[in-house]
Amino acid sequence: xxxxxxxxxxxxxxxxxxxxxxxxxxxxxxxxxxxxxxxxxxxxxxxxxxxxxxxxxxxxxxxxxxxxxxxxxxxxxxxxxxxxxxxxxxxxxxxxxxxxxxxxxxxxxxxxxxxxxxxxxxxxxxxxxxxxxxxxxxxxxxxxxxxxxxxxxxxxxxxxxxxxxxxxxxxxxxxxxxxxxxxxxxxxxxxxxxxxxxxxxxxxxxxxxxxxxxxxxxxxxxxxxxxxxxxxx
Length: 233
What we know:
This protein has ten helices and seven strands. The chain has helices spanning 14-31, 35-38, 60-72, 84-87, 102-105, 116-129, 142-159, 175-184, 202-210, 229-232; strands spanning 51-52, 78-81, 94-95, 139-140, 165-168, 193-194, 216-217. Strands 1-2-5 form a three-stranded parallel sheet, covered by helices on one side.
């Protein structure tokens, strides 16, 4: 309770979470019981894992091949990215203000920045990702939606329709574009569509879910239980 003021949503909650986990660990050791017992007891013996996978190039076929490799390793639930990253370099696929797609095109790597060009690339990505989805001015064109539908169709052609496939990292798009994409890919039966819009817009999430049969998922960036209340009401 005393340290929660020092955390925040998304990665800002990492420090507080680390301290809280450490304190639970100390409490468990002091009482000589597993932490799960202190939190209410065991609910299941095992948990199904999903494997998040993407290709090094924006290709549905290549992504499908990599997902197939994960299936060979024994994974029974898959996830992949599908959105702006896959079509940002295709002329006519995304309607956007001049220069606003640079953050998606440069794909700045992590780690130390060594050149001015790398710094500019990373700044372009940060600038774009700090603008909330409704205000970016980014829109999928019909061509862009065709390409995204083709992308997931190629993936399903390789992995089949029997295994669950979730979708993430759509990009900073508006509610209307999220609805258009969700409807386009319904036939491929996504397990869920994740973080299409910021979690701070619960009314948008209601409209999105009402407009599609694809399950809608969010929550990984929410800090503490208070942030979930508007979504659960």
